[in-house]
Amino acid sequence: MLGLSCALAILAGAVLGMAWQVGKTMVHETNIAHLRYQANLLSDEITQQINQRINALERLNGAVGLSDDSTWLNYELQKNDSLLAWFEGLVISDENGVIVSDWPSVTGRVGLETAELEYFKMVRGIRRPYVSEPFVGRASGMPLVLISVPRIDEDGKFAGFIGGIVSLESSGLFNRLGTIRLGEEGYAAVATASGRILYHPDNDLVNADLRSDQLNPLLELALAGWKGEGVTELADGNVSLQAYAQVWPADWVIGLFLPADQAQLPLSGFIYKLLGIWFALALIMMPLLWWLLARILKPLDHLEAQIGEVGMGQRASLDLATSMQELQQVAVTFNRVEDERQQLVGHLQERQAFLDSVLSATPQGMFVANFGGKITYMNPSLLEMLDIPPDTPMETWMEQVHPDDRQGARDMWVHSLKTGSDFVRQLRFIRSDQETLWLDIHARVVMLSKGGHSLGLVGVVKDITERRQQEALQRWEAEHDPLTGLLNRRGFDRRLEEAFADFQKTSTPSALLLFDLDHFKPINDEGGHALGDEMLRRIAQIVAWEVRRSDHVARQGGDEFGVLLPSCTLSQAERIAESLRQAVSEVSVTHEGKEYTVTLSIGVTTFDENDETVEMALSRADAASYEAKGQGRDGVIVKLPEQFDPMALFD
């Protein structure tokens, strides 16, 4: 019954939806046609009024001639006093834009210079009638426009203009717009092509500029000279039916706007009436349909009850007493499928028991994950390895994965589930006893043999902590001096190459110090290599203390040392070198009552943009170290590229 009700509701919704769409299209077309007619009608009427005023000014232009005599011009303007029915005032200018006559006379208007004003430049440039941008009258405080007609002499030269001042509020230009009926929220408006509002139901907007956020695509086209109609959103986000027409003599745009919601109100009422009719019919038909369905579906109730009993184990098969052949066929098919299912369940239980035994007995850590990536089983070996109880939620022990490895492991896990690729990852796991394990995890997606559907993932986990520690120790030993613990030549060269590469890419400054020990040979000769080794260890410790934590100190062999100072200027490097020289001079060892000390001859340089290889910087630092020895040892010499002659090494 619920399904039938839903079907009727869907049918009614589909019919009403189609009626709404068709009706909305018809409503839009009808209203668009009406808006187009009204826009063209308004355009024709305002165009006619503008042309009448231009024609009147041209007749007046012919009557007054080219004289600039103020008395004569005032006389002619007064004779045409009837024009004040169309204009707030009349003005005449000479060829330089100076007002020489006006009517009615307004104090300060005669003698006014208009040469730099927009309308004078336009009428002088185009030599034909021009309607100005709106402005506010000084005396009236009302928005006005000036209709100008050029005065042209016999030689075709510009001799000034005759202008009529038109009030946007009281001239009657827009009286017709006030009679347009577009419902409660629709309206008509007029603007210049430059975006200045001439007429709007909201008087506060008159003479204001249209902001960019007030424009819509159709209005932008209309301001560019297009006329037509369409449906689009306004600046406030409401959909509106719009029509635009042009007033070409004045370069104005007329726009009519009707909100789509208002245009669709009659259609909405009609749809609601249809919905009410359908609801009433549904209430009448429901009881009858309920009774018919109950009789038709009664055998299905018996079928449902017996299937439930089979599911609970209360019966082994279906046994329906009905004459409906379709239900008999369903019962036979169900009984066959149930027999097959029971056989499969038995096989599955056997396989599950075997798999559980294998997973529990294997010494290797193993896990099983479901479709969503959630780990549903971990064998005892894995639980013991991770030191977590069997019932620990996955979200809890996942927090024990090392923070640096956690997000990468999550991303790879999701990728494997989506693509069906293997999950192969090495990560760190922090046990509850704070011991950190390195784990090697390899999980594979298990696919059905038919259909290619994924059942989840089965994974193997190995504890590779000891192997990783051994590898780390081997890497450390390969790059460090066993006597002092400092970098050896190999480790130092690698860091030099990395710093030089950074310098070439980002111009990051780095400094280089090279030195060996002055007076070291007597320590080895008189005290033996054990005493020499002790001195080397002490000096290595002192040098490591004196430099910054980011610096790299190396024993390159024998008593030769190097220091790489990344992100270090030459002046900083020189100070560090001096502190090393001072600190090492205070180090001593004693043998048989005799105290031995050493000094440093330090060569300092920095990477330079002319260095093609890191060996060039090493050569400069080495040369500076030899120069320090040549100057009496125990000193610091700085070598810059321009101070270094490579051939000096062979002198």
Please give a quick description of this structure.
With 651 residues, the protein is α+β, with helices and mostly antiparallel strands.
Task: Tell me what the structure shows.
With 651 residues, the protein is of the alpha+beta class. The protein has 17 helices and 23 strands. The strands form five sheets. Strands 1, 2, 3, 4, 5 and 6 form a six-stranded antiparallel β-sheet that branches. A five-stranded antiparallel β-sheet has the order 8-7-11-10-9, with helices on both faces. Helix 1 packs antiparallel against helix 7, helix 14 packs antiparallel against helix 15 and helix 15 runs antiparallel to helix 16. It is flat and about 135 Å long.
Radius of gyration: 49 Å
Largest sheet properties? 6 strands, antiparallel
Mean of all residue-level pLDDT scores: 82
N-to-C terminal Cα separation, in Å? Answer: 109 Å
Helix content class: 40-55%
Task: Count the E strands.
Answer: 23
> Which overall shape is indicated by the principal axes computed on the Cα atoms?
flat
Features:
5-stranded antiparallel beta sheet, 17 helices, 6-stranded antiparallel beta sheet, 651 residues, single chain, alpha+beta, 23 strands, flat
